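PT: before anyone asks, these are the final sequences, not the draft ones from last week. 794 residues across everything. Please model them as a single complex and drop the result in this thread when it's through.
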Amino acid sequence: MSNSGKKIKYKSQSRSRRVSLGVTYLILIILSVIWLIPLLWIVLSAFRCQYHPDGTFIGTVTSDYFPKYVGLKNFKDLFSMTFAGVPNAFGKWVLNTLIIAIVCCIISTFLVLSVGYCMSKLKFKLRKPFMNISMIIGLFPSFMSMIAIYFLLKSIGLTGNPEHPEYSIIGLILAYSAGAGLGFQIAKGFFDVIPNALVESAKLDGCTSFKIFRQIILPLAKPIIIYQALMSFTGPWMDFIFAKVIIGADNPRYWTVSVGLYSMLFSAFADKNLFTQFAAGCVIVAIPIVTLFMFLQKYYVEGVTAGAVKG
Amino acid sequence: MSSKTKVPKKNKLSLPERIGKAFSNFGKRFVDGSLGTKLSHFIFGAGNFYHKQYIKGFLFLVIQVAILAFMILCPEVNGTPYGWKALRNLSLKYATEGSEFDPVLGFVSFNSDCKLMVLFGFVTIAVVAIYFLVWNMNIQSSYKADMDKKIGKKPTTFTEDLKELLDRKFHVLMLTPTCIAATVFTLLPTIFMISLAFSTYNQQFMNENGTNLFHWNGLENFKAVFTGEGILGFEIRNRFLPVLSWTFIWAIFATLTCYFGGIILALLINKKGLKGKKFFRTIFILTIAVPQFISLLAVRNLLGEYGPINSLLMNIGATTQPIGFLGLKPGDSESLAKFMVIMINMWVGIPYTMLMTSGILMNIPADLYEAGRVDGASTTKMFFKITLPYVIFITTPYLISSFVGNMNAFNSIFLLTGGGPTYTGYAAGGTDLLVTWLYKVTIDQGWYNTGAVIGIFTFLITATITLVTYRRSKAYNEEDTFQ
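LR: through. Structure below.
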């Protein structure tokens, strides 16, 4: 008797579980669609290839979600586009951004790792004050000091330099990576987890701090190195406001790709008919970054989780 | 009684005690030190030369000569001097309206670049600080050699000193690049902008060179926020409280919606028996991986006047005119724009929390649920009694930092609404946060002093929230025990 009762209960349980699983699928599919609508639209717009009856190309936002005709015209036009007097501007922007991203990635990763290691594993007098000061500075809105950094860079000729407009790139690299060391918290949290005993015993064996760092810590730090490199490499592709202020609106040859794309929609040179080309540019920028994220997802999740739980 | 219950504290010196100790230390070094150490107080590296540490002594000397030359010769950049002149410029109280210039300082012309004067003044202060730092290091180095000699050890050679940098002084080597870079590109600009909040430096001053000179005006700019005095005062006073309260409302809603939305999404994705977890996760991560200026501008255009959403709504007859979802035109509804911004922000923010809480959800001890099931608790009840408290407990630091992050969520507002509806000049629009307003006031309008005031207010608010909660958090208090 009790056995059959159990069976019925089990059956109804499995049925309600199936129903709830089905509901979950439904909700997740609806949410996925919502999540994809805007992104898919940008991709579709990038491939849109439609003309007015009089033969002029339609590059604006249109009322259709799905394009009637597709083609690669937007991509071709984008690469041959002369924008703000700069011929083939898009390729140049991509190259600028690539250079900035690579250099920033190297400098920032190095700075963050070294500071994170010091704060976690070395004992010295100014440790706590350094941590407090860096936290307090971090609380000032970065937009506040942005203009001051511009003044500073301008006074040493690293931006707005009429003879060497290309120096703006160096200026932007400095602006991006100089403060990177102050964002050591996640790296510190990572190093904190490495047992101190490991370091102590190496010290007893006569290892110097440098040797410990190079031979024990660094090999263990691969996840945090990858996380940091990912963040500082993608940073310059994502940021547009800092780059816009530091490089300046009057120096379109040395814009980063995000500033360039933004300016295609909002600036003195903006044109509503450039929207589909803007979309094409977005696709070109987004694909490598998204790929990178997908491949390094594990490290990204590890990094943000460590940062969140440690605070 | 109370002394017994008190936890024994570390033997810490109070600040005055520490200062006193530092001074007595200086005196001691001067009195006890060798002739070289005594000389080091005036000529850098003298002590090192005395102890035959020539390279080190030479380096100290070079630094002293370089800094002194910098201070005395006052090199000029763009016509603005460094050195003692920069310090003097910093202390100037320029003549105010009407009069040409300060009679005592007749040589200050109107065309001098005031922002550079102030900036260089702070750079020079930093250089002076470095001078005294090196001064102390050089005495210390010589005194240490004295002590070594006293106990019969040979003073360290230069190579030995360099080797120390890889071992006992490794932190010096590792932190120096960051200290220099952060001082120049973060600390200095921040101090500079803070100082501008106490000055008359703004666009108007720059345009009408000569009528309204640069000078320090104390708390005038701060007062203007409340009294509405001055050219900008009226606008600032009218908009300050609305912007401040909207910033808070925005931060609260944006944080809570994304937080709970993320937890629910994580629960859905991690549901037992669900297939394609990775597939779903990848879709939601897309909004993190795609740069915000792309994803948010996509949404903005999608919802735009001629965009697909509006034309769909008009086709099905839901509306006769395009709806101004994002308040991009002056007549658009402010509350709709605010609502939309919060909704769209969920689209961007939920995946973050989902990622964060996924790992935590899987680490909830299974026996907690087992116990709940034995007690006959329903799934909903277990969610509210077990899952939620557990997750909230672990992610409190994240909740705080995301609240502060949302207060400074520049992209979400700037890219979606541009602060609209109705934004003119330096007057904030309906959806402007303190940061976007700060950006407009400083970068677009050039009202540096007012922008700095807004920035300081933002800092005070976020700092209070962070410090109060952070100091109480486990991560801070048990930092050492954790290791």
